[in-house]
Design goal:
alpha+beta; 5-stranded mixed sheet; 5 strands; flat
Length: about 80
Amino acid sequence: MAVHIRLARHGSTKRPFYRVVVTDHRSSRDGRFIEKVGTFDPNAANGLHLDMARVQHWQSVGAQVSLTVSRLLKNAAKASSAES
């Protein structure tokens, strides 16, 4: 079973809200998922909230991260290092 970490879209028209989910790659975009590991609100200033321990756990057991989620993770790492 190939597991991916990707975004699932929620929210209304023109007001997107995303959940960062761990899912089987065969599931539809907004379909079944294994675990919710965070949220992303592109309309908010600091709209990314992740459970990094769970993300790292899933990556350690072989989950593939989507391109969009990998960009979000990279930007979150930059922001946290800039604050420190």
